[in-house]
Each structure stands twice: as structure tokens, then as C-alpha cells.
Amino acid sequence: MHTIQLKKNKDKAAFQLHPWVFSGAIENIQGNPENGDIVQVMNFSGEFVAYGYYNNLSRVAVRLIEWHPDQLPDEQWWRMRIQRAVQAREHLLRSGDTDTLRLIFAEADFLPGLIADKYGDFISLQVHASGVERVKPIIIDELDQLLKPKGIYERSDDNARGHEGLAGSNGLLFGLHPPEFAPIRENGILYEVNIAEGQKSGFYCDQRDNRLLTAQYAKGKRVLDGFCYSGGFSLNALAQGAREVVSVDSSALALETLQRNITLNGYDAANHTAIQADVNKQLRAFSEAGERFDLIILDPPKYAPSRSSLGKAARAYKDLNRRGLMLLESGGLLATFSCSAAMDMATFKQVLAWAALDAGKEIQFIRQFTQPEDHPVRASFSEGEYLKGLLCRVV
Ligand code: SAH
Fold it and tell me: Atom 6, ligand 1: which residue's CA is nearest?
């Protein structure tokens, strides 16, 4: 077995079960590991630390996966790890209301570089590490045995694969090709998901709980869903009896899917308006036209991809939320989200406080949102915590 020895005093995070070994922490490499090989990591004094997979092109040179020296990651090990992740979600898988969820969430499920999402009868895989690429056939076979999907489709992120020296990968891995509009169900609401072409892997199942929680406040209300994608929040609001829902997104395909989803669920299309626009511009236009809403949802894409962009992102979140708050009267609600891991909850609250001051409004935080249990946060890997939200009431 190839061995990676860490520099002096560079073993602390790894001993604390953090899964990343940066290339700068490596003292020497014994043997000649190829990218994707399982290596053993030892500290400067020669004690065993963990097993992981190696990649000399990545900033994270070793992704640690197993801290027990007698548990060498072999085929059985991979099968066991996949089983554990799926079994932990068994109660969700039994739900008649929801057939769409994340089965494997990378580091959080001790499988760095691997994401698996279930969309009804299909599974979408993302493989972002060469160590995972090696064992793709085992992963496919185990997921087939556990879940009997109609098909498994790969939707890896080419950029993430590029960092590991892997070519882009997108296509059918097993079984049937998913239909252009695969039917799925979440919280009892029907959606059509384009698994092969949709954004990310086709549907944002991380907002499942928050859609339901937010929709509790929608009955009889005029609702604005900013960054609506295929309508997760809009459809839940309509299901809970919203008086009127206005959905805004810049993507024509997203809005088209949303309109189809409204029909699919038999909701009254007369209560819904879809606007293709930049949300910031649309909020300004609403302000100028004197429009008002009772409940506004703002779920933008990731503004802060890294810590270094946090300052700029904080200003963008502030401006967006200020514009949203301007459209609410006393008693109005803003459900606002950030999926930037770099922005923590405390900072997000500050941003909202700042936005409210600028908007000339006083707000209360009446609820906090987070990611659902199929996107767990591992105690030793806080980087996996990314989704947060606040329900704000204008006083
Ligand atoms: N709330 C959605 C997920 C939002 S994902 C749900 O529940 O499924 C972010 C969305 O923002 C994407 O659909 C993307 O098309 C859209 N988007 C990105 N930048 C935008 C902009 N400046 N104006 C409007 N929409 C934008």
C-alpha cells in the first residue's frame, strides 16, 4: 500500500476526522500512487491516521474515508457505506408523499466526491473524485440492488471533475434513459423533472422541508416567489390556498416546467403569473409600480462560492433583500435563503438587519430554516453546512 506521510503538526484535523488532506500538508509519499488509488496516511511520527483516495492534481490531495486501520476500503467496504447511507433514509423512502431525495451526500455520508439523488424511479449520480470514478460499477450495482431504479443517469459537474483531471461525464449509466419529463412527487405535489438537462441534477430537493414550512403562511395571501425554478415554493403556496402567486426566474425552461407542474397538479392557472426576468430588476419594477405582496420568497443561486467572495456576496444579499422588504407592508413576511456555505447564519442575520434598516423597515426573525436530514452535516465537516434561511416579519 502506498503511504502518504504528513508534515510535523499537520495531523490534527485528520485525527479529528476532517476528511481533507491538502497537498501542502504532505511531507513525503512512499510508493508511487496513481490518481484514484487508495493510500494510507500516517503522521510525522509514523502513526496510522486514515485511508483515503489520492489525487495529485487536486488541492485536496487525499480525501479521507476510513479511520480504522483494519477496515481497508475494498468492494465490501463500498457496498457497506452505500447501504448505510440509504438505510439512514429509509423512513423518508417509505413516505408516500415524497419519492425524491438525496441518497448519498458526499463527505457527510463518508463518501467524498459522490452524490446520489433519487428522482422517483430514477437515480442521478455525480462523481467528482477519481477515487470514486474507479468504483463506479460497484456503486451502480449496489444502488440497483438496494433500490431497483428504472435507470441511473450521470450528471457530474465538469468543473469539479476537471480539478481531479477527469474528463466531463454526463449520460446513461444503467437501465433506461429517463424521459424528458420524469414524474416525481414531493410533499404530495407532482413535478416533472428533466434529469438529463435540468439545472444541477434537475431539482432542488434540499428545499423540501422549507417549501412546506413557508407555505403554511400562504393561505389567502398574495405571494411572490423570486428565483422560482420549477416552482417548488409557488406550488406549495398554491396547494395551501394562496390567493395569487407571482413567480419570477430568468430561465425560460424553468418557467415552462413550472407552468406544466401547475397543470399537472390541477391548480387554477388563473391564480398564477410567471415572469421571466432578473429578480433584482423585477423587484425594482414592482416598487415603482406600487405593487405589494404579503409573502415573498427569495431563494437566489449561490452568491458566495468561496470565503474570499463573502464581502461582495453580502452586499448582493443585502440589496436583494432590501428590495424585497420594500414590497411588504406591516405584517408581511419574507422567507429568504442563502445556499452559500461561506455565509453563516450569524452573518446572514446581520445582512438582513442591514437590509431592513436601508429599507426603512423593522423586522423580526420568526423562524430559521436549514437543510433537510437527507443533506446531513457531519460534526467533523462543517463545510457541508450550506443552506440557511430566515423567515422575517415586518413589524
Ligand atoms: N427556489 C427554487 C430553486 C432556486 S435555484 C426551488 O424551490 O426549486 C435558483 C434559480 O435562480 C434558478 O432557477 C435560476 O434560473 C435563477 N436565477 C439565477 N439568477 C437569476 C436572476 N438574476 N434573476 C432571476 N432568476 C435567476
Answer: 232
In short, whether 164's Cβ falls inside 6 Å of ligand 1 is no
Taking the centre of ligand 1 as the mean of its atom positions, its distance from the CA of residue 227, in whole angstroms, is: 3
**Res 196: pLDDT:** 86
**Average pLDDT, integer, range 74-100:** 97
Residue 198 covered by a domain: no
CA-nearest residue for atom 18, ligand 1, is 301
Q: Are residues 161 and 278 in the same domain?
A: no
Helix axes 279-288 and 310-325, enclosed angle (nearest 10): 30
186 lines ligand 1 (CB under 6 A): no
The domain boundary residue, chosen from 175, 195, 223: 175
Per-residue pLDDT for 179 more than 70? yes
Res. 77: pLDDT tops 90 = yes
- Which positions are annotated as active-site residues? 339
Q: Say whether both 141 and 233 belong to one domain.
A: no
Q: Shortest CA distance to 329 belongs to which of 280, 290, 366?
A: 290
Name the residue of 100, 210, 229 whose CB sits within 8 Å of the most ligand 1 atoms, as the mutation to test its pocket: 229
Helix (H) or strand (E) holding 166: none
Give the pLDDT band of residue 199 (cuts 50, 70, 90).
Answer: low
pLDDT at residue 115, as a whole number: 97
- What distance in angstroms lies between residue 309's CA and the mean position of ligand 1's atoms? 20
Residue 15, domain extent: 3-66
Cα pseudo-dihedral 280, 285, 291, 294, rounded to 10: -10
